[in-house]
């Protein structure tokens, strides 16, 4: 996985998502249809496509240790988000689960009904 279109297609495979361009054409933000929360930010930087995804703090640490192409997130909370540089060193089968985990972590939560 090396292109913006490939990442967008992988994200669109999840339920109730859409792509947004709130800043400019360089920033593609993948959002939940309900609540509009972002789960992936796709952009070009330093001649490569990068993707910011949310992970648990523990997973952020582990991923940065395991993969040279996983860095503290560009323009995001570095404790909860990582940037994946799509330089070809990570395979699609490694990236898609990270997209899915970000999707799950940012999914809208159902509010509990108050007991009367």
What keywords describe this structure?
single chain, 116 residues, alpha+beta
Distance between the termini: 51 Å
Q: Taking Cα atoms only, what radius of gyration do you get, to the nearest Å? A: 14 Å
Number of helices: 3
The amount of beta strand, in percent, is 25-35%
Q: What percent of the residues sit in helical stretches (DSSP H or I)?
A: 25-40%
Sketch the major β-sheet: 6 strands, antiparallel
Structural class: alpha+beta
Q: Which regions contain 5 or more consecutive residues with pLDDT less than 50?
A: none
Q: Please report the total strand number as a whole number.
A: 6
The average pLDDT score comes to 93
Shape: globular
Q: What is the H/E order?
A: HEEEEHEEH
Strand order of the largest sheet: 1-2-3-4-6-5
Structure description:
The structure is a single chain. The protein is of the alpha+beta class. Helices cover 28% and strands 28% of the residues. The chain contains three helices and six strands. It has a six-stranded antiparallel sheet, covered by helices on one side.
TL;DR of this structure?
With 116 residues, this protein is of the alpha+beta class. The chain is built from 3 helices and 6 strands.
């Amino acid at each position: 996985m090396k292109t913006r279109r490939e990442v967008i297609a992988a994200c669109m495979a999840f339920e109730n998502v859409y792509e947004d361009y709130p800043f400019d054409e360089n920033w593609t933000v993948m959002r939940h249809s309900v609540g509009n929360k972002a789960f992936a930010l796709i952009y070009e930087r330093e001649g490569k496509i990068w993707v910011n995804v949310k992970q648990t703090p523990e997973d952020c640490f582990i991923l940065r240790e395991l993969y040279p192409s996983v860095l503290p997130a560009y323009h995001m909370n570095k404790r909860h988000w990582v940037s994946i540089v799509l330089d070809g060193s990570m395979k699609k089968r490694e990236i898609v689960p990270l997209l899915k985990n970000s999707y799950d972590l940012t999914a809208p939560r159902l509010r509990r009904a108050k007991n009367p």
